[in-house]
Amino acid sequence: MANVFEFEASIPLSDKKHDVLTVGELLIDMMTTEYDDSDTCDTYQKLFGGSPSNIALNVKKLGITPLVASAVGDDGLGRFLVDQLQQAGIATDLIQCVDDSTSMVVVTKSVATPIPIFYRGADYQLAYTSGLEEAIINSKIVHFSCWPISRVPSRDTIESVIDTVRKHGGLIGFDPNYHPMIWQKGENGIDYVKSIFGKVDIVKPSEDDAERLLGKAEPERYLDYFLELGAKLVILTLGKDGALVSNGKETLAFNSLATQVVDTTGAGDAFWSGFYAALVKGYLLKEALSLGFAVSAYKLKYTGAIVDLPHLEFIKEKYGL
Amino acid sequence: MANVFEFEASIPLSDKKHDVLTVGELLIDMMTTEYDDSDTCDTYQKLFGGSPSNIALNVKKLGITPLVASAVGDDGLGRFLVDQLQQAGIATDLIQCVDDSTSMVVVTKSVATPIPIFYRGADYQLAYTSGLEEAIINSKIVHFSCWPISRVPSRDTIESVIDTVRKHGGLIGFDPNYHPMIWQKGENGIDYVKSIFGKVDIVKPSEDDAERLLGKAEPERYLDYFLELGAKLVILTLGKDGALVSNGKETLAFNSLATQVVDTTGAGDAFWSGFYAALVKGYLLKEALSLGFAVSAYKLKYTGAIVDLPHLEFIKEKYGL
């Protein structure tokens, strides 16, 4: 990898079989069927969930090849998730079936910020296998979030994943979506998350993530701090105010491309998806960032984390990029 | 307590403030809204659950005074459960709010035997508190199942509960509903469950429970074995074939009183409820057992673990007891 990712160049990716390998949480979002701010809605819908798995579904629709490495339980919920991936035409060879319940997040649809209830089970039992190693060696981009590093043994798995990418070449994207509620009890997760920034290439903290990790500060200060921690490219998203992106040499501001905001769920995953798809398709870094924001804007018009995305080129044209 | 519980006598209970104290799982049953044998139903309903908590709701309706000691999370599901108890007029002072997600069981309505998916969280964080100790001292009957003893720290809590009952007098009912899926990994739960029989008074294994604990055998052999383990009264339920009950001196056979079986969920809890209510109301042991089976038969006519039970005397009359 280059020392600086130039905005006016494409990021060189090795010619490998798989475009994006996501490693981590594949889980059920159990969501109330109605908006509810007083715990009165009794009915729920089970939805495909887990941020990296959403990215895999998205990039497939955008026109590149994903692979998913995750762990589910030997139960009806795990079978549902695997089935959803297969229906989308995504290989499930790297889905491990482990001795724990399929992980779940119970979410209340809310106009205020909903407070999720986390049920960690199978997801963090993800093991480092020879199959996973082979997939890493053959993937252009490897992506993970804070979920697998929040607990052992999946944390050890991610450490091995990073080592293997570093040895065999490849780009690492990391979503520093730190939240104390997913972290194992009795550990300061913040220090561990910070230690990861120097081992990956691209990070995309939201302003909330940044505040949880670094305390309250100005966006520019966040950029500096994440760069100091070792990230090569920092994409700091600011909601309706767009994003600031720094490669350590210069900082670009991107305006939000959203024209209509119906539901923000999955907007960050949509960004990653468009951005990765564009990188794989060889767009300049600056263009790839714009395409990521365009895919995010497209997703914002629809309800749910997973929407029926068209090919990347369709969105590129639609947003005049 | 007497050495033998005579069928033709009532069990003498001290004059205490609370009739039945249930200690253990208070949780959400997340159940598919449709019958489903192929994981295709996507909608679920959240229901009040946890066997001891169901017993508490039931006995309140039957006309005696319950108290519930449980642990829930500081989340919407925990608030829902506490609210349900309060609506039923049951004191919730002994519900502990702990730093873990409210426990949940995901269940598929099925004509075959449904395979539940367990999410243990808050329930096994139940601590032994001075409030709990006071409640134990002031309760005629204390009831628990295999859930709290399946994991630490709630196992330690139950051991203290048993010690306190033994010191201050009181009857202990234990539901040996052993299942390897709820047990903590890497431990042979069977030996531990067996060790509990000698520390309690009344146990009600189903034939399935007995087989899981002792292997396949004739019902009479199960009775002997549970008595040898130290139980004073063994109520072995045999589904449609009724039950065998032994006090170590004699064994009585009870026919099922069911006239119509719509849903078996919660039938065992309904038995415990009717049985405890009758013991508290001073019926002879033999009558109390019959009343337990009558309440169970009444419940079997309706769907769900919790049904709108009438007063015990109404059921007594209805079943000609």
TrEMBL record, chains A, B:
<keyword id="KW-0418">Kinase</keyword>
<keyword id="KW-0808">Transferase</keyword>
<dbReference type="GO" id="GO:0016301">
    <property type="term" value="F:kinase activity"/>
</dbReference>
<dbReference type="InterPro" id="IPR002173">
    <property type="entry name" value="Carboh/pur_kinase_PfkB_CS"/>
</dbReference>
<dbReference type="InterPro" id="IPR029056">
    <property type="entry name" value="Ribokinase-like"/>
</dbReference>
<comment type="similarity">
    <text>Belongs to the carbohydrate kinase PfkB family.</text>
</comment>
<dbReference type="InterPro" id="IPR002139">
    <property type="entry name" value="Ribo/fructo_kinase"/>
</dbReference>
<dbReference type="InterPro" id="IPR011611">
    <property type="entry name" value="PfkB_dom"/>
</dbReference>
<dbReference type="Pfam" id="PF00294">
    <property type="entry name" value="PfkB"/>
</dbReference>
<protein>
    <submittedName>
        <fullName>Carbohydrate kinase</fullName>
    </submittedName>
</protein>
<dbReference type="InterPro" id="IPR050306">
    <property type="entry name" value="PfkB_Carbo_kinase"/>
</dbReference>
<feature type="domain" description="Carbohydrate kinase PfkB">
    <location>
        <begin position="18"/>
        <end position="311"/>
    </location>
</feature>
